[in-house]
Structures are given as structure tokens and as C-alpha cells.
Amino acid sequence: MKLILKKSLANLGEAGEVVQVKAGYGRNYLIPYGLAYVASEANMARLQEEQARSKEQSRRDFLEARRRASQLEGKSLIFHERAGEDGKLFGSVTENDIADRAGEWDLDFELDKRSIQLEEAIKIVGATKVSVRLHAEVEVDLEVQVEPTES
Predict the structure, then answer these.
(1) Secondary structure of 37-68 in the HEC alphabet?
(2) Residue-wise pLDDT tens for the chain (151 aa)?
């Protein structure tokens, strides 16, 4: 029996894949639990249409991420924070702070804090390169400069 998987299943295949299974397994388990549907001609046509639509959406997402990355390239942020004499900050600069400050730029999109790749918050004075992942294949670096305040 040929079925099209709705969900990825270990030892069977990925979602959208056409698989050959025994009739009882398909009829009694995969189809009733909504894990697969019969690979009829109409369903195969629907699957191909869905895959084409998904591929086109993926391409659009990639191009949009590249456009956004071009707006962020070469940008840098300067933060003025209280720091001790040894250069350690009394607070820290986090993904939220970077996203909020980037919101002040004239961008046609809002930078999401989840796209900012910081291993840990910035806690020292100086320059730091911060990666911004806009898409699985598109990443851009921002320079974040932290300077001590005069107090």
C-alpha cells in the first residue's frame, strides 16, 4: 500500500514522502491516527502542488532575509553603561537592549531579539561582534560598542 506521510516518522520517512507499507499497518494505524493518507493520483497532485508552494515560499523568505541583511550590514551600536574601574559593567547589554536600540534605525522591519545570537550578555567595556541570524542561510554581523559613562 502506498501512502503519503503527513508527519515525519522514525524508521519510515519524512513528512510529504511517499512510502510503501503493508496494508494492515496503513489501514489500522497510519491512516486512522492521521499520520498518512492514501497516495491516490489526486493526493499525489496535491502533494506536488504543496511542495512547489513550499519551495516558492522558502525562496521568498530567503530573498527577504537577504534584503534585510543588506540594511543591517555595516551598522554599529554604541551603548553608554556604568562600569567599574576594571571595565566590568554594573549591568549588562542583552539581546533585548540590542533589538530596542536597533529599532531606532530607519529600518522597514523590526529586528526580533530571537534572531540576535549572543552566547551570553555583554558584561565588559569594549567592542563585540554580534551575529544576527535572519534566515537559516543568512547571517549578518553587527558591531556593539560599550563605553563607560562619565559619573
Answers:
(1) EECCHHHHHHHHHHHHHHHHHHHHHHHHHHHH
(2) 999 999 999 999 998 899 999 999 999 999 999 999 999 999 999 889 988 999 999 999 999 999 999 999 999 999 999 999 899 999 999 999 999 999 898 889 999 999 999 999 999 999 999 999 999 999 999 999 999 987 5
Q: For 2-68, which CATH superfamily applies? A: Ribosomal protein L9, N-terminal domain (3.40.5.10)
Backbone phi, psi, residue 74, to 5°: 80, 0
Model pTM score = 0.72
Domain boundaries, the chain: 2-68, 69-148
Return the closest-CA partner of residue 105 out of 78, 123, 81.
78
Task: In whole angstroms, give the CA distance from residue 133 to residue 43.
Answer: 36
CATH no. for 69-148: 3.10.430.100
Count of residues for the chain?
151
* DSSP code, position 39: -
**In the sheet where 36-38 sits, what is the strand order?**
18-20, 2-5, 36-38
